[in-house]
Design a protein that fits this description.
Radius of gyration: 15 Å
Strand order of the largest sheet: 1-2-3-4-5
Shape: globular
Number of helices: 7
Order of helices and strands: HHEEHEHEHEHH
Oligomer: single chain
Helix content: 40-55%
Strand content: 5-15%
């Protein structure tokens, strides 16, 4: 089985809820690494802030400062030095404004103003409204990517295209929908 097929199978096999959270985080991190490393650097997994209060799921350093790549564009536009990914594998609960606000709080000035919530299901309306408020207040962009999107990006890479095009598309769609 190819690496791409293995990752797709692992993403699809993740059990929703608490029982599958670890496998979900591992499968998503593996997918993101497959998709984006390089040009992004290998992820820093479960890093804690110095005080130990904050624990982020995965951070992919973005060292693409120059050139015409999507990551260089995001570095310039959103100061996206470190790309934060948070993983939410919910069963009965919805992905709402609290999850978005938590992600907002993890974005520090040195990291930049771009984060991605990887979810096993689409977030509810309140999550979308909250991210609009966050952008209006802080100019921080929080994207939502489902496992379906990750699987689509794997297919994009297999075709020889750049899977980060989908990230840029989601940023632009966010700007269009922001109110």
């Amino acid at each position: 089985m190819s690496a791409a097929n293995d990752i797709r199978a692992r993403l699809r096999a993740c059990k929703a809820g608490h029982g599958g959270w670890s496998e979900f985080e591992n499968a998503c991190t593996e997918a993101l690494t497959y998709l984006f490393v390089p040009p992004l650097a290998k992820p820093i997994i479960q890093p804690r802030s110095y005080s130990g209060i904050d624990r982020r799921d995965a951070i992919f350093p973005n060292r693409c400062h120059d050139g015409g790549s999507n990551w260089a564009h995001l570095y310039k536009e959103l100061d996206a030095r470190m790309i934060l990914f948070e993983f939410k594998n919910y069963d009965a609960s919805e992905i709402g404004k609290d999850e978005v606000n938590q992600t907002r709080n993890y974005l520090s000035k040195p990291m930049g103003r771009l984060a991605v919530l990887c979810t096993n299901k689409p977030p509810e309306r309140q999550a979308h409204i909250k991210r609009n408020t966050i952008y209006s207040e802080d100019k921080k962009v929080i994207l939502f990517i489902t496992t379906t999107d990750l699987i689509e990006m794997i297919a994009i890479k297999e075709r020889g295209d750049d899977p980060s095009d989908l990230i840029l598309d989601l940023v632009e769609l966010f700007y269009v929908q922001h109110e």
